[in-house]
Design a protein that fits this description.
The structure holds two protein chains of two kinds. By secondary structure, chain A is mainly alpha-helical. Helix content of chain A is 79%, strand content 0%. In chain A, helix 1 runs antiparallel to helix 7, helix 3 packs antiparallel against helix 5 and helix 4 packs across helix 5. Chain B contains one helix and 15 strands; from the N terminus they run αβββββββββββββββ. In chain B, strands 1, 2, 3, 4, 5, 6, 9, 10, 13, 14 and 15 form an eleven-stranded antiparallel sheet that branches. A four-stranded antiparallel sheet of chain B has the order 7-8-11-12, with no helix packed on it. In chain B, 45% of the residues are buried. The chains are: A mainly alpha, B mainly beta. The interface between A and B is medium-sized, with 26 and 24 residues.
Chain lengths: 176, 236
């Protein structure tokens, strides 16, 4: 009985926890990150960061001062090149966001690869369902109906137990 | 017969003299080689980095991209560098004048400005790196790895420096990067080089060099190359 309950629990669990809907989404997420969470990709983005820093540095340290040297006031530079001004103003925030993101990407390459090595996510619910079915089948196979066959239950005599008793009686008589 | 004996005795004496000379030379050499390393306790006062000469001098550092080499790079360019070759980031000494051995020079509280610039200023003055200040501290617990680390130890033996700077921690953009050698777990990953250098006992001038691979974070796989120069001042 307990086995049957356990088996049914395993069969029902994926549905209860919405695994049939969620597991494929996990699979989609793993596929989406497949081309991102690699060491070579992280190194490429680290390289982009280096290039961006050099570019922003050139704007901040070379271009803007050169414009100011030619008589443009800082407010004039800002109005004439608003994108440059916006980049400069937001550069710290860009770094504040970008570098931890690269760090998170880099630190999770090994974690991603470990999870990617698992079987496909959409199969996960069936890892509960199939064992559940097996447990239920076993519980049915070893159920009370089957156990009664060929064995004594609650004082009743079964054919095999009668046979065994007769043979034991014969042996005792022979020894006498 | 007597002639033979004389020549043999002479030969024997010569062999003994030769053996004795060789042994004494070896013993003298061995004794000098075994002179104990002396621990330099005090402050390695840093000279400010400079790009005036053909090659940079004083105190500076460079960052090598993953897959690069210490001699050939590829090097990370810091647009805020004062050098023509912007892969050199120069440092100027901080309030303590430099790095102190035998004790920690930890991060202040808070360790960063609101924009993420490092505020530690004992060893070096915060320097701009890609628009945000970075600096150096040595903390009892390494901020990146969370491991306890010993205070820096530098030893001298026959004018050559060695030791450990496991606690050397770079701060930048609200992030910490262990830049020690060896690393806090004692390992020397990637291009990590042990501390080496020279020391002049008369002038106390020193040059300290090491390299340390960045493990984890946005600069994972990069290597920091550190060149510290200046004059050692012993603790009283």
């Amino acid at each position: 009985m307990a086995l049957a309950v356990l088996g049914i629990g395993l069969i029902v669990a994926p549905a209860v926890f919405q695994m049939f809907q969620r597991a494929p989404k996990g699979g989609q997420m793993m596929s989406a990150f497949e081309g991102i969470e690699t060491t070579s990709n992280v190194e490429m983005i680290q390289g982009y960061f280096g290039s961006m820093a050099v570019g922003q540095g050139a704007i901040r340290l070379d271009v803007v001062p050169a414009l100011e040297d030619q008589g443009m006031t800082p407010s004039r530079v800002q109005s004439r090149f608003p994108a440059v001004a916006t980049l400069d103003q937001n550069w710290d925030h860009i770094l504040n966001d970008m570098t931890p993101m690269i760090g998170a990407m880099s630190d999770n390459v090994a974690n991603y690869q470990a999870i990617a090595a698992l079987p496909p996510f959409p199969l996960f619910p069936y890892f509960f369902v199939f064992p559940g079915l097996l447990v239920v089948a076993f519980a049915i196979g070893a159920g009370p109906g089957r156990r009664n066959r060929g064995s004594r239950v609650d004082g009743e005599l079964s054919p095999t137990s009668v046979q065994a008793a007769i043979e034991q009686e014969r042996e005792t008589t022979w020894q006498r | 017969m007597a002639k033979v004996v004389t020549s043999r005795v002479t030969l024997g004496l010569l062999a003994l003299v030769t053996l004795g000379t060789t042994m004494s030379t070896a013993l003298v050499a061995g004794a000098s080689g075994k002179s104990p390393a002396k621990t330099l306790v005090g402050t390695f006062k840093l000279s400010a980095g400079s790009c005036m000469g053909a090659t940079p001098s004083g105190t500076y550092f460079r960052m090598i991209f993953p897959g690069g080499s210490l001699s050939g790079g590829k090097f990370f360019d810091n647009p805020d560098s004062a050098c023509t070759d912007t892969s050199y980031t120069l440092a100027t000494p901080g309030t303590a004048g430099g790095v102190t051995t035998g004790k920690y020079q930890p991060n202040p509280t808070p360790a960063y400005s609101t924009s993420g610039g490092a505020l530690a200023n004992a060893i070096i003055e915060p320097q701009s790196f890609t628009g945000i200040n970075f600096s150096i501290a040595t903390n009892r617990v390494d901020p990146q790895t969370g491991l306890s680390v010993p205070a820096p130890v530098i030893k001298v033996r026959n004018g050559k420096l060695s030791g450990q700077v496991e606690a050397w921690s770079a701060s930048w953009n609200k992030l910490s990067f262990n830049q020690g050698s060896p690393k806090p777990d004692g390992s020397k990953p990637g291009l990590t080089l042990p501390v080496s250098g020279t020391y002049n006992a008369k002038t106390h001038a020193f040059v300290l060099i090491w390299a340390s691979a960045v493990v984890g974070g946005p600069f994972n796989g990069f290597t920091g190359y550190w060149h510290l120069a200046g004059v050692f001042k012993a603790a009283k």
